[in-house]
Amino acid sequence: MAGEQPSLAVIEEEARLAIAEARSLPALAEVRARFLGKKGSVGAVLRGIGALAADERARVGEAANVAKDRIEALVAERRAALEAGARDHELSARRLDVSLPGVRAPRGHLHPITQIERDIVAFFTGLGFAVEEGPEVETQWNNFEALNIPPDHPARDMQATFFVDGGHVLRTHTSPVQIRAMTGRQPPFRFIVPGRVYRNDRSPRHSPMFHQVEGFMVDERVSFADLKGVLYAFQRHMMGADVELRFRASYFPFTEPSAELDYRCLLCSGAGCATCSQSGWIEAGGCGMIHPVVLANCGLDPERFQGFAFGMTLDRAAMLRFGVPNIHLLFEGDLRVLGQI
Ligand code: DAH
User: Fold this and answer.
1) Ligand 1 pocket, 286 CB below 6 A?
2) Distance of CA 285 to the CA centre of its chain
């Protein structure tokens, strides 16, 4: 029976070839089982030992164990080679091409109104003004009466008001913050007030919500000359050193005297164009000396204190600076528009 078994030398040679040809770890495991497993060829030789003559048993048994060790060593060698190959393959498959151009992540920016607002606030804080804010739902006292606009005063028609219940309104301007800031405090005051305001008004140039900046200064010797100096410096900052300004007499209930500040249209240099409605000038905002009644409404002695105030729309400045033709484009949040600014 032992004579029918292939010799150990043949088994070892077959194993060497099969191991060398195993292309993967599972294939190698199969080859190992075929030769060294319980039912493998080497095992068959060992099982056949019982049928051998006594003096043969030890020799064949030892030779089989030596063959088994050699085959085991060949399997280990091949396994190491296959594992290294798999690692190399994986590394090359996952290789990064660091020379590929990157994909730039889209980057946002501050809203144009925020940019202008921060610019203005930075300018005035540089002049020693402090930022003051107030609520958008305001009492009629602060929004109108205290600012010298009594209930049946025609000036209320200048501002199409949104009424809220309980005698409140959506503030129609930032001027009520003058009242809040001055009541119960003692001058000197230098305040700048950015904020949202609301009017029942809609057109390509008007939005029911827009932004104003109010500024005011109160002390014992504040004059219209101070107002002019501050506004000239401010407009030069906003529009450039050679901006041309004019103060035009006007009327506001809360200032006396009152003026409107215009600057020479930058697009047509004053010749007249669509942006300035052919007038050559663009309104920058209203201003004046704070009315004595307003100071008294805040508990201040108008004989002792005077002040100037001004108010302007931010949105128009943003439209001009960024070339936005329609105010609503600023508030629709359309990234195709905002991305161009
Ligand atoms: N509150 C005014 C408005 O909304 C703007 C204004 C004009 C504010 C003159 C002032 C000022 O402080 O002095 O139309």
Assistant:
1) yes
2) 31
Question: Tens digit of pLDDT for each residue in 198-248?
Answer: 999 888 888 999 999 999 999 999 999 999 999 999 999 998 899 999 999
Any ligand 1 atom below 6 A from CB of 309: yes
Residue 72 alpha carbon to ligand 1 centre in Å: 96
**3 state DSSP class of 255:** strand
Distance 288 CA to ligand 1 centre (A): 9
pLDDT digits 0-9 by tens, 87-135: 998 888 888 888 988 899 988 899 999 999 999 999 999 999 999 999 9
C-alpha dihedral, 155 to 159 to 163 to 164, nearest 10°: -110
Structure tokens at 214: 């109010």
> Which residue's structure tokens are 């600076």?
321
Residue 212 alpha carbon, nearest atom of ligand 1:
4
pTM above 0.85, yes or no: no
- CA dihedral sign, ordered 179, 185, 187, 190: negative
Q: Which residues contact 102 (CB under 8 A, 6 or more apart)?
A: none
> How remote is the CA of residue 310 from the centroid of ligand 1, in Å?
6
Q: What SS3 string covers 296-309?
A: HHCCCCCCCCEEEE
Distance 73 CA to ligand 1 centre (A): 95
Secondary structure letter of residue 228 according to DSSP: H
Nearest-5° Cα angle at 169, 325 to 332:
25
Residue reference for tokens 């290789």: 95
Whole-number Å distance between alpha carbons of 85 and 69:
24
